[in-house]
Structures are given as structure tokens and as C-alpha cells.
């Protein structure tokens, strides 16, 4: 179960400290996704973001896969569970920019304001999560934590139910969601009807055997 963790204060590092941390980081990397320090002090590197989306996303129909409902040139569908995306970013990129880049990479047409980026840490058999503010810098967090995802990982989620910005949804998006819900409701209804029809057949068969003249 996720446990909410208080945000840790940002510690500003000198250029020399950044250089030392990057050298230490790169010496521990096992997947070749190393960081690079530029002459201007800005460094670049990679982060992996796990997509944990419960609601369907809206994409261009030509890019969609899986269960979907069509509307003009856009499609709403559920992203597969456990999908992980790797982004190459710089130390100046903010959480908001990372979210926008993720959506662009997936051809997602939804408003970025619907989503939030979380950091997840493992400590003493507990999983701690914390929603990052739009102005935080994910690559800095990756550098400080090191390359091991057990120490720190990033997760993209929708805003919690109480935080949903309904004004960010367009009418076509809401209509697509309703189509998906109607389809799922019909599928569940048909499944229930088949199940109870099978029960009824067995009961009638049993009753026939009980009352059958000897």
C-alpha cells in the first residue's frame, strides 16, 4: 500500500558537487543510461516513468491500440498496465514539461492538467509516494537518489478524484468515455445473463430428474 511522504527540501548543489554526483551515478549505471554534464552546468540524462492510468486516454486514432471507442479523428482507449516510458531530459526540465513530453510521445491529446507525476520510494518494506509539484526537476531527483529504481521511481497518474479538473475535459472526450462505459456495461450484462442462464438450465435439469416418473 502506498504511504504518502512529506516532500523533502531541495538542496542546491555546486557545479563541483554536481560533477562528483554524476561521476558516482555513471559508475553505478547498469543500463547504459548515463548522465552528461555540459560546460554551462546543465546536465542531461534519462528517467523512466511508469504509467498507472485508470481512465482512458485520448489519442489520434491512427496511433491507438487495444479497447477503444472512436470519435472523428480521435480515439479513447485504456493504456496497458505497467507501461514504462524512458525520456531523455535535462536538469532544467520541470515536472510539467516532463508530463507534456510523455503525453506527446504517446500521441495523447488530453490536457496535461489532468495528470500528475509522483515519486515512489522503497524504505523499510514500505512504499512511499509523493506527488511532485509542477516546478520540481525530476532529473535532479534521479541524480540525488542514484540510478536504482528501488531507491526512486517515477509514476504518472491522473489527479485524485477530488482533484479532477473537469474543465480540462472536452465534450468529445467525455462522450468517448461514456461510449466505453456503455460498452463495458453491456459486456458485463451479457456475461451475467449467460451465467444465470447456465444456472437456470442446470436447475431445470435437476428438477426434471427429481420429478421424473419412476
UniProtKB/TrEMBL annotation:
InterPro entries: RA_dom (IPR000159), RASSF1-6 (IPR033614), SARAH_dom (IPR011524), Ubiquitin-like_domsf (IPR029071). GO terms for biological process: signal transduction. It is found in: Cytoplasm, Cytoskeleton. GO terms for molecular function: zinc ion binding. It comes from the Eukaryota. Residues 163-210 form the SARAH domain. Residues 71-161 form the Ras-associating domain. Pfam families: Nore1-SARAH, RA. GO terms for cellular component: cytoplasm; microtubule. Keywords: Cytoplasm, Cytoskeleton, Metal-binding, Microtubule, Phosphoprotein, Zinc, Zinc-finger. This is RASF3 protein. It comes from Rhinopomastus cyanomelas.
